[in-house]
Amino acid sequence: MDISAFLLFWAAIFTSNILLTNFLGMCSYLSVSKEVESSLGLGIAVTFVLVFTTGLNWLVYRYLLVPLGIEYLQYIVFIIVIAAFVQLLELLIERYAPALYYTLGIFLPLITVNCAIFGVSLFMVIRDYNFVQSLAYGLGSGLGWLLAILMLAGIRSKLREKMVPAGLRGAGISLIITGIMALAFIGFSGIAPIQ
Amino acid sequence: MKPTAQELKIMQRMQPGVITLSGFLGSDTRPLNEILESDSAALAALDRSQQEIADRMESFSQASWDSYLGETLIEGKYLVQTDVYRGRLPCPYGHPGIFRKAITRLTNQSNGLCVVWTSLNIHLIREHGFFEGKGSAFRLEPKTLVKALFE
Amino acid sequence: MLLTILKDVAVLAGISGVLAILLVIAERWLNNYGDCKININGKRELTVKGGNSLLSSLGEKQVFLPSACGGRGSCGACKCQILEGGGPLLPTEKPLLSQAELADNIRLSCQVKVKSDISIQIPDSIFNIRKFSSVISEIIDFTYDIKGITFKLDEGETIDFKAGQYVQLITEPYGKVRQRVSRAYSISSKPEINTSIQLIIRLVPEGICTTWVHQNLKLGDRVNFTGPYGDFFLRDTEADILFVAGGSGKAPIKSMLEHLQVVGTQRKMTYFFGARSLKDLYLTKEMKAFEQVFPDFRYVPVLSNPDPDDNWQGETGYVMPHFKNAIRDPQNTEAYLCGSPGMINAVCKALQEQGVAADKIYYDSFG
């Protein structure tokens, strides 16, 4: 695909935000968005893991799956790579950067099963990105996810003093807010189409 | 109709040795939904609702609760006695909550019928319309039960 | 075709294998904290492999902190005080701890990882709870549906409990029962005997554990249990005591009386035992004998419904009307009740009407 990595980076944040246009990574998005502080931690962790796993998966796909002709196994292989990488990362951080572990590391197990991470790896294959594009797309998607969860956390912290109908409290109202945010983000589309 | 996965899971919990020693199904080999359907048809014929029966059973159990040693005479003709044993049981349907091992024995002196139920039976009838399988230790035959409780 | 499939499977297995080996090596290198020592209450020191959560490390050594969520940091039941070496507070713990608890360095043991020597403080009642292995050394038939069973602990093991506490028996699969269940029974022997315990167990219709105990267990059988649990135990005061029991509720009170016999007491004590008829009475001689042991003790069995053949000369009806004569000074009376909820209910009400303070009435209700 012929698109500059720089443009792709911005597009991944705004015009095709992984969370608000593809609705990927919803579970941790809904459950952790109660506080701005932990949302920031999780968002940074997601961004970090996204960049690395997209890069890794690109290498695995290009140099292992394609030559061996087993592209159809990409789903399983990607999941295994992501899971192993996250585990490894957790061990590394815990050992060598305890301070970072307490702010970021504890979110890592949540990320193993975050579908945004998996989704980005699959999009990168479908859209035929090159290595640099993949990294840019991974970074952009991560920051986009961070932006979305921060916005929701901000709104939810305001919502705490508001009267929400009992049936909508928690996930219900969060999903409605997410829907409205997604509608707002549609306004960006057309600036740089990457689908 | 084939039992659904959910029903199979419930029937699994009703087997002997899972929640109680001999289970809830007794010698009944019919699938759960058939047991429920035939009992609910019996109820309809008797013109009584699950709710009504469960409420009546509960009111008897409650009334005999305080007289923990021996029988109480209720409404002039029902001899009721409740024995409580240590421990509690969960509902095989996987409901939250656990039920006392309280066994109530009611004798209707006007027709001589005697029925025995546990706290769990009341819940099973109210929420699930389940009177246990034929041959089970605490099987409550709807017809006998209604006669004993209301006549 | 077959070859392709085999090749694909081999490649996939290869990738997984390489990653797994990588992780195992990483775990060895990175997660190796060596042996760490856990010091509990300054009394006991456990040596565990570092790197796991405090909750699971303690569990491995048979010290069971309560936990309802299984270590996911959502129930907050596994709180314990960490005096030294727990690392900084984690964001996952913070929401479940109050300001006072934070100040006391209370932590969630499922979140704290053991990475260095650590010293913790847990309640004595939990500290004593362990899993025991025992052999049945005696079975007595007390009535048609109540048995007394003595479990002898393995050589060198001792159990440390308070008179009135209970243990949980763990059944083995038998007959149609294919899984293990655990059920609670009060200890009826005195705490001074710490190499064995006696339980009094009443057969419950359709009960998995009681049927196992009554019909399957023989002398010499091996049985596991955990414990001791419970806050129904004898308070060390000088107040008059009223014991009230029904059914198999005799067990904890027997333990209390035997304990008092060892330590000696001048307290005025009255023991009411409610039963239906003569065939439900048991241990009568033993309880009566305590009247000779203590300076001021009376055992009063009360039958609500004696058979005419029983020739019952004693008290009849309910136990409640007899309290009046037994209570000297309601302000200075403690009551220990053990029996069915119906009995506890009625007895509590009657005692409070007599002026006994609600917080001086201790009870162990069935279930």
How does this structure look, described?
The complex is a heterotrimer of chains A (195), B (151) and C (367). With 195 residues, chain A is an all-alpha fold. Chain A has one domain. Chain A contains 9 helices and no strands. The longest helix of chain A is centred in the first third of the chain and has 33 residues, at 36-68. The mean pLDDT of chain A is 85. Chain B is α+β, with helices and mostly antiparallel strands and 151 residues long. Chain B has helices at 5-13, 32-46, 50-65, 119-128, 142-150; strands at residues 72-74, 78-90, 98-108, 114-118. Chain B starts with a helix and ends with a helix. Chain B has one domain (5-150). Chain B has 5 helices and 4 strands. Chain C has 3 domains: 35-126, Beta-grasp domain (Ubiquitin-like (UB roll)), CATH 3.10.20; 129-229, Translation factors (Elongation Factor Tu (Ef-tu), domain 3, Beta Barrel), CATH 2.40.30; 240-365, Rossmann fold. Chain C has 9 helices and 17 strands. At the A-C interface, helix 3, helix 4 and helix 5 of A face helix 1 of C.
State the gist of this model:
The complex is a heterotrimer of chains A (195), B (151) and C (367). Chain A contains nine helices and no strands.
Name the features.
heterotrimer; B: 151 residues; alpha+beta; 4-stranded antiparallel sheet; 5 helices; 39% helix; globular; C: 367 residues; alpha/beta; Ubiquitin-like (UB roll); Elongation Factor Tu (Ef-tu), domain 3; Rossmann fold; 3 domains; 6-stranded antiparallel sheet; 9 helices; 17 strands; 26% helix; 29% strand; elongated
The helix-and-strand class of chain C reads: alpha/beta
Distance between the termini of chain C: 63 Å
How many helices of chain C does DSSP assign? Answer: 9
The coarse silhouette of chain A is globular
Low-confidence stretches of chain A: none
CATH topology of the largest domain in chain C: Rossmann fold
What is the number of domains of chain A? 1
Compute the number of strand runs of chain A: 0
E-strand count of chain C: 17
Gap between N and C termini of chain A, in Å? 11 Å
Protein topology:
The complex is a heterotrimer of chains A (195), B (151) and C (367).
Chain A lengths: L4 H9 L12 H7 L3 H33 L5 H23 L1 H6 L4 H5 L2 H12 L4 H29 L11 H16 L9
Chain B lengths: L4 H9 L18 H15 L3 H16 L6 E3 L3 E13 L7 E11 L5 E5 H10 L13 H9 L1
Helix pairs in contact in B: 3-4
Chain C lengths: L1 H29 L4 E6 L3 E6 L4 H7 L18 E6 L14 H5 L2 E3 L9 E4 L2 H4 L2 E12 L4 E8 L12 E5 L11 E5 L9 E7 L5 H9 L5 E8 L10 E7 L3 H14 L5 E7 L8 H10 L3 E7 L11 E2 L6 H4 L6 E7 L1 H13 L7 E5 L2
Parallel strand pairs in C: 1-5, 12-13, 12-16, 13-14, 14-15, 16-17
Antiparallel strand pairs in C: 1-2, 3-4, 3-5, 6-7, 6-11, 7-10, 8-9, 8-11
